[in-house]
Amino acid sequence: MASSARLALCLQISFVLAAAFKNDGKIVNGTTAAPGEFPFVVSLRRSKSGNHSCGATLLNSYWVLTAAHCVRGSTPEQVDVQYGSQRLARNTTQLVKVAAIHVHPGYDPQNKYVHDIALLQLKDYVSMSKRAQPVRLPEPRQHTPGNASAVLAGWGLNATGGVVQRHLQKVNLQVFSDQECSERHQEQLHSSQICAGVPEGGKGQCSGDSGGPLLLTNSDTQIGIVSWSKKPCARPPFPGVFTEVSEYVDWIVTTVGSSSTPSSLWVGQLVVGRSPPALLS
Predict the structure, then answer these.
(1) Candidate list 69, 102, 115, 190, residue with the active-site label
(2) Catalytic option among 43, 61, 85, 210
(3) How many angstroms separate the CA atoms of 139 and 52, rounded?
(4) Is the distance from CB of 152 to CB of 226 less than 8 angstroms?
(5) How far are the Cα atoms of 49, 215, 247 from residue 80, in angstroms, in the given order?
(6) Bridging pattern class, strands 136-137 and 264-267
(7) Is residue 190 annotated as part of the catalytic site, yes or no?
(8) Tell me: the pLDDT tens digits for 165-206?
(9) Residues 6+ apart with CB under 8 A from 169
(10) CA distances from 40 to 57, 123, 280 (A)
(11) Which residues are within 8 A (CB) of 153 and not within 5 positions of it... i.e. 6 or more apart?
(12) Is residue 69 annotated as part of the catalytic site, yes or no?
């Protein structure tokens, strides 16, 4: 083969490989979520810039669940919530403002981000539809066994130093037992935290996924809230660390129930609240 032909072939291969790697933009090594697959996942945005900052989930038409570190120090006026769409869009009309922020009183970022959970009370009613539905909470203190299959959804960076994804991504993960989680991180984590990743690393959460949900596979039950991870993202042997939702169901029920706005929560197989969610068409 002539040198010019070999050069042309090499350049062609290089362009193909570069395009392949450039288009492999996901929450670390995930895939694009199917339309309507996670109708309860919402985006927290900085109201001034319209930029995505964290993930979150709809609990009902007036309440959103997220991580404390996503909103601590923020005022309600600084946060907007985009709902009902898997594509981030600055000019969306599916946007609701926040009326109040409730950070768990025990939240401590200096103590391995213990109690990293917060509730946002919305200023306006979010109408439920096929693209906007409430997430189901687990039973209080429900145990999730190690090796359970789970899925993470979010718009976070595809890698440390990467870019926020415009379309919602998902990745299949494995839940690690509390003992294995602490052993992999080489420090004792809190019993109110849960870990998920893959043993070989390379899949999991990154910046921008914080506050988003970890769900049992083939379920709408949220077992975790993205809290923190070692950097660079998805680095073995360290699985991502999540707030374990089942440890906070009582706090969620109490906080939501203290509001004067009638609202309900899906908890396990029961509906808790003064009126159940509207039937979805």
Answers:
(1) 69
(2) 210
(3) 30
(4) yes
(5) 10, 24, 27
(6) parallel
(7) no
(8) 899 999 999 999 999 999 999 999 999 999 999 998 888 898
(9) 26, 27, 30, 31, 32, 33, 153, 154, 155, 156
(10) 5, 18, 13
(11) 27, 33, 37, 38, 41, 55, 168, 169, 170, 212, 213, 215
(12) yes
Q: Which amino acid is at 9?
A: L
Domain boundaries, the chain: 39-134+248-256, 148-246
β-partners of residue 240 are 196
Residue of 52, 61, 74, 116 marked active site:
116
Give residue-wise pLDDT tens across range 77-120: 999 999 999 999 888 889 999 999 999 999 999 999 999 999 99
φ, ψ dihedrals at 54, nearest 5°: -150, 165
Q: How far apart are CA 13 and CA 33, in angstroms?
A: 30
CATH of 39-134+248-256 given 3.40.50.2020, 3.30.450.40, 2.40.10.10, 3.40.50.150: 2.40.10.10
Does residue 52 carry a catalytic annotation? Answer: no
State the pTM of this model: 0.86
CATH, domain range 148-246: 2.40.10.10
Q: What is the pLDDT of residues 20-59, one digit of tens each?
A: 323 333 477 789 999 999 999 999 999 999 999 999 999 9
Output the CA torsion sign for 100, 101, 102, 105. Answer: negative
Neighbouring residues of 226: CB distance < 8 A, sequence distance ≥ 6:
55, 67, 152, 154, 156, 205, 209, 210, 211, 212, 213, 214, 240, 242
